[in-house]
Design brief:
single chain; mainly alpha; Arc Repressor Mutant, subunit A; Tetracycline Repressor, domain 2; 2 domains; elongated
Length: 186
């Protein structure tokens, strides 16, 4: 494949993930990724700041989708709004299931990537809390609903990537139900 073929970004992402799975994240260089696609290292850097960003590309779209979902949710309960917003991202995730499952394995196996993943989750929580506050929710309650919603998302995602037949939305709803049941037992 040459550098003039279409979808260089997508080809670089697929090649990077394949290499991360085959060799490990730390053992894969940007040059390895570029070579696999048949482009220069410089071409790689036109699309990604570094080799980690290949795995976190799309995070902004996720955060924006969830924030919009919270803004448009009609339920009075802040946590229910947040969970509904995550469940509403089902199509975003379901069309990427294979990629997401492989990505999750690479991230889990690499401490530096786990740190980046946790930072992403924290940033998402802050954005969700800000929207809830804009909607008149008390700051403490907004932060708590955002944190719990992000925890539901994180656990639902972990469930979804290992269950081949599950949809993302179903995993979010099941995890939310488990949280509610646990709270009732407390």
């Amino acid at each position: 494949m040459g550098r003039w073929e279409p979808d260089a970004r997508g080809r670089l992402q697929r090649a990077a993930l394949d290499l991360y799975v085959e060799r490990g994240f730390d053992e894969t260089t940007v040059q390895d990724i570029a070579d696999r696609v048949g482009v220069t290292e410089r071409t790689f850097f036109r699309y990604f700041a570094d080799k980690r960003e290949v795995l976190f590309d799309g995070s902004e779209r996720l955060v924006n989708g969830v924030v919009d979902g919270v803004k448009n949710a009609t339920d009075a309960m802040p946590l229910t709004r947040v969970v509904s917003a995550f469940a509403g991202m089902g199509e975003f995730f379901d069309e990427r299931k294979s990629w997401s499952a492989q990505r999750a394995r690479v991230v889990t196996a690499t401490p530096g990537l786990m740190e980046r993943e946790l930072l992403k989750l924290s940033t998402m929580g802050v954005a969700i809390a800000a929207v809830l506050e804009e909607q008149g929710v008390d700051a403490h309650e907004a932060a708590l609903a955002a944190d719990l919603g992000v925890a539901v998302f994180h656990r639902a995602f972990q469930r979804w990537v290992v269950d081949e037949s599950a949809t993302f939305s179903a995993c979010v709803r099941a995890t939310s139900d488990e949280l509610q049941a646990a709270v009732r037992k407390a």
